[in-house]
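Take a minute with the sequence and C-alpha cells given here and flag any C-alpha cell that looks odd. Thanks in advance.
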Amino acid sequence: MIRDLYIKANAPSGGASVGATLMKTGQTTSYRTGDDGDLESGRAASFLVLASNNPFGSTARFTDELGGSTYTNDIVIDWSTYDGSTVLGYYFDKTTRTWNNFVDWGIALSVDTFTSGWRGANATEIHNLFNYELNEFINYSPFNYTADGNNLWTSTTAKVNTTTAYFFNNTTTQSLARGAKTSGIYCMATRTFTVTGTTLT
C-alpha cells in the first residue's frame, strides 16, 4: 500500500510512455466485418509502408543499411523498430546449424563494417517479420523466404523441455514450433544499430 502510494506520488505527470502500438499483421483480405483484414489495426500505413519517413527520407519499412534496396550485404533494416536513436537489423543465412552452433555463429558474425554486436534472432524478433496476408509468412521482399523445406532457428529455448528451442516453421504450420537443439536448421542473426542522421554504426 505504502509502496503503491510512493510510486503514484513520484510518477511523471501525465504518465510515462511505455511503448508503441503494435505493428499491423499485414492481413488485408477481410473474411467478415470486424476481422483483422477489415480493421487492419496497428501501427504504420501498411505492413511494408511506414506512416512517416525513415531517416533516409522514404516511408519504406525495410531498407539496406544505406537506405536503399540492393541488400548487397544481406542486411535488412526494419524501420518499424526505430526509436529515434537505434533500429533493429537482420542478416539471413541459408546454412543449417545445430542450435548451439547457431548461437555461436550469431555472436561471432561479422558483416562488412559491422564486425560485432550480432546475435541469433529471438522468437519475438522473427515473429515481428510475419506477414499474415501470405501463405508463407516471410516470403516477401527483401527476405523471400519460401517453403522449400526450410525452418529458421530462434535463440529462444523452450522452457517445457530445455533440450529444445523454438524455430519458425515455414512448411506446414507457418508458425513457431519446438525442435531438438541438435537439429540442423537455417539461421537469422539480428543486431541493434545506432542511427546518426543517415549513418548506421
